[in-house]
Write a structure and sequence with these properties.
This protein is mostly helical. It contains nine helices and no strands. It folds into two domains: 96 residues, Tetratricopeptide repeat domain (Serine Threonine Protein Phosphatase 5, Tetratricopeptide repeat); 79 residues, no CATH class. 73% of the residues lie in helices and 0% in strands. Helix 3 packs antiparallel against helix 4 and helix 4 packs antiparallel against helix 5.
Length: 225
């Protein structure tokens, strides 16, 4: 789960803001008869609220996915997956609200991409990840998630470029993408097209490089002990 930025997190913990004046959805408006008005929320606070609501839907969706994985028959599995998809759609709406309040909420854009990808809408997922990376180009989780969407779309060159970029800057995210590519290998063994075969060979080559790099790193650490 992607954490809120320091800015959004701080806003959620900030002291109450000064009371607003006039009417509005957050102030109550009109004559309060001496009653204390509720503090007006900033757009960033409303964005944080919507973002967190989306994360709650994501959590419930993942719980339904776990139930689907443990289902004993296809009917129950399909039922649980349908519930998960509904939760992801609700999450998308919350993330959209968050972005409406804060157009630079790259975390919400990234999570929207995740929800679209898990719902099977890979094109929209890529667009959401691109939006997040337009705000924060070095956001490694979005690079990795987008690469998984590329993988589902058989956009192999984009997957390769993403992996190489991650391998040089974030080993954990590179490893996550490698696991996704290995899973792809398992489900596409029967794909004998030239592009799929070449990509499969590339995955095995990169896996060997990663293992050798990890081994060298371990040996270098031991040399200093």
């Amino acid at each position: 789960m992607i954490k809120l930025s320091m800015t959004l997190a701080a806003l959620m913990l900030a002291a109450p803001l000064a009371f607003g004046s006039g009417s509005g959805p957050m102030s109550g408006g009109g004559d309060t008869g001496g009653m204390t008005q509720a503090p007006r929320m900033t757009p960033q606070q409303m964005a944080a609220n919507s973002y967190n609501a989306g994360l709650n839907h994501k959590k419930r969706a993942q719980e339904y996915e776990d139930k689907a994985a443990a289902a004993k028959d296809d009917k129950d599995r399909a039922k649980q997956l349908a519930k998960a998809k509904d939760q992801y759609q609700d999450a998308i709406e919350d993330y959209r609200k968050a972005i409406g309040y804060d157009v630079r909420a790259y975390q919400a854009m990234n999570e929207m991409g995740y929800a679209y990808r898990k719902s099977g809408d890979y094109d929209m997922a890529v667009k959401a990840y691109n939006s997040a990376l337009a705000v924060k180009p070095d956001f490694a989780p979005a690079i990795e998630y987008r690469a998984e969407a590329y993988l589902a779309l058989s956009m192999f060159q984009q997957v390769k470029d993403s992996y190489v970029a991650l391998f040089g800057k974030d080993q954990d995210q590179a490893a996550a993408l490698m696991r996704a590519m290995e899973a792809w290998l398992q489900t596409h063994q029967a794909d004998t097209t030239a592009d799929a075969k070449a990509f499969s060979e590339w995955i095995m080559e990169r896996k060997a490089v990663a293992m050798n790099t990890q081994s060298l790193s371990t040996n270098n650490v031991h040399a200093w002990n």
